[in-house]
Structure formats: C-alpha cells, structure tokens
Design a protein that fits this description.
Layout (H helix, E strand, L loop, with lengths): L4 E7 L6 E8 L3 H14 L4 E6 L9 H14 L5 E6 L3 H11 L4 H22 L8
Parallel strand pairs: 3-4
Antiparallel strand pairs: 1-2
Helix pairs in contact: 3-4
Length: 134
Amino acid sequence: MGDRRIGVAISDPSQTLATPVKTILRRVDNLTFHDITALIKKYNVGRLVVGLPFSLDGSVGKQAEKVLTFKAKLAEHTDVEIVMQDERLSSVTANQRLREAGKKGEKLKNGIDSAAATVILQCYLDTPDQSVST
C-alpha cells in the first residue's frame, strides 16, 4: 500500500494462486475504504492480506506506521479479518517479473502496484504461518 496507489490481488478458491485485480488510486480515506469494501463484496473476500513495508533491517519505519494506521481505520469499515504480510522487496520482484514478461514504459508503470500485491499475496499463500500478526 502506497501513499498514492493500492495494488489489489485475489487468490483462487483453493488459496494457492494469487492473481492481480486492479490498482486503487488513493483519495480521501473514506472513498478508498469504499473502494476496498466494494471489492470485498464483489469477490466474497474472507481475509485481507495487507503488505507491511518493514525497513530492510526489519524495523518498523514511517511507511509501515502509516500502513498500520490505515489498517486500524480500515478495520472500522469491515468485519473481514485483516492480516499483515512482510512486503520487503515486493515491488522490486514485481518490476523484474513485469520486465521479464516484456512490459515497458506506461504498461510497466501501470501494472506495478497490482503485480506487487500479487507477490505479497502469493508469499502469504505459500507460507501462511509466516504472516506478521500486527
């Protein structure tokens, strides 16, 4: 989750494969919460996985604090369980995968957030007991 955009991915019913869905442009928080809760309803989501951007040394920095604050506010708008997943280097991995798939320029820029969300969700699905409980 960034200050301007939130990438969204969803898993298949068996919870084994993550797929990119879209990127939500962040505006006023209430509108962003509306967009997220609409996706929860549309896809019948049972759990939200939110990337927590730890610093490379594992500490909680300013961006991670912003995400934790956003998570607390989001929890007021949904009863769906919200879990945190370490997202260090997810954008780097997503960028590399998009480039390998031949994406360049605007297509690369437009796909990075949902691709990073896919990386985060796939990490969670692959090792659910490794999720961060914050």
